[in-house]
Amino acid sequence: MIRRRLLSTLLALPLFLAASGALQAAEITHSMGTTEVPENPQRVVVLTNEGTEALLAVGIEPVGAVRSWLGDPWYAHIADQMKGVEVVGEESAVNLELIAALEPDLILGNKMRHEKIYNQLSAIAPTVFAETLRGDWKINLALYTKAAGKEAEGKAVLDRYNARVAALSEALGDRKAEKISLVRFMPGRTRIYYKDTFAGLILSEIGFARPASQDKDAFADEVTKERIPEMDGDRLFYFVYETGDGSAKGLAEEWTKEPLWQNLNVVKAGKAMAVDDAIWNTAGGVIAANLMLEELAKIYDISLPE
Predict the structure, then answer these.
(1) Phi/psi of residue 141, nearest 5 degrees
(2) pLDDT at 302
(3) CB of 107 within 8 A of CB of 86?
(4) Listing from the earlier edge strand, what are the strands of the sheet with 64-65?
(5) 134: which DSSP letter?
(6) Which residue from 222, 228, 227 is spatially nearest to 187, judged by alpha carbons?
(7) Residue 168: CB atoms within 10 Å
(8) Helix, strand or coil for residue 39?
(9) 71 and 79 in contact (C-beta within 8 Å)?
(10) What is the mean pLDDT of the chain?
(11) Who contacts 259 (Cβ-Cβ below 8 Å, separation ≥6)?
(12) Could you give the CA distance from residue 247 to residue 245 in angstroms, rounded to a whole number?
């Protein structure tokens, strides 16, 4: 009798352990509430560009991700790490059928982009949303990596970034008093970028000054050529969001030939330069942030810690 009971217990043990493992979950509080996610998710789908960079930075290759805003289909600076990843639509138009077909065990998205489809995504797999985009990439990275079971690794990634910001700031010294102007050319539109932007917040972290007209905690203003004088500064960085038809590049060429542009003090001083839109604005994640730091360090002839 005892032997039969022992045998029954031993035979049931694997099923019990399997069930226990299946029940293991981490409770994640996020912008849409609280969600139980697997402690070690293996098939992650990510629905924002900055979220993709957060996962790659901690060694996770998602099974699916939204197409990069630039590139075919990925930004040049992450393409080598994304070769096996399925495209599941765009950040502003995800494909629910493609996501479901991938059988994810975790979906990461953003309330600002995907609030209306949260319930549909949650029906596919446990879904965790960050609140917003732009300057919140560090907050979002901490959330995404915690949900993906890589909280410690995410903290290490942020610690490294923060250490590089501090090193750059210290090495710059008085040069941080230079007023940095940010301008973006898009198809049919030109914007002056303020402090509540990806590049603007990184400049603020480093401690750079901004021109008085740009020193505001706001996103951006769409401007006409009459406002070109507001683009002046001690140094000007401009980026071009080119979608493939050449219109944004043509717009940039048109504006930079304008007498008002040519008359800017920063242009006459030879300190207006084009930079990569993906890195300085569009990607919006930790990999791009580190590349922006490296570009600034090169411009100012500073060595950054690895």
Answers:
(1) -60, -45
(2) 97
(3) no
(4) 86-87, 64-65, 44-46, 106-110, 127-130
(5) G
(6) 222
(7) 23
(8) coil
(9) yes
(10) 91
(11) none
(12) 6
Question: pLDDT-derived band of residue 82, with 50, 70 and 90 as boundaries?
Answer: very high
Residue type, 106: L
Structure confidence by residue, pLDDT tens digits, 241-251: 998 889 999 99
Structure confidence at residue 136 (pLDDT): 82
Residue 5 has pLDDT above 90, yes or no: no
Residue of 6, 304, 302, 37 lying closest to 175 (CA atoms): 302
pTM (predicted TM-score): 0.89
One-letter amino acid at 87 equals: V
Contact 28, 128 (CB under 8 A): yes
Residues in the chain: 306
Q: How confident is the model at residue 18 (pLDDT cuts 50, 70, 90)?
A: very low
Query: What are the phi and psi torsion angles at 48 (to 5°)?
Result: -135, 155
* Percent composition of the chain: helix, strand, coil (DSSP 3-state, to 5): 50, 20, 30
d(CA 177, CA 235) in angstroms, rounded, equals 11
Query: 146 with 132: CB under 8 angstroms?
Result: no
d(CA 106, CA 38): 8
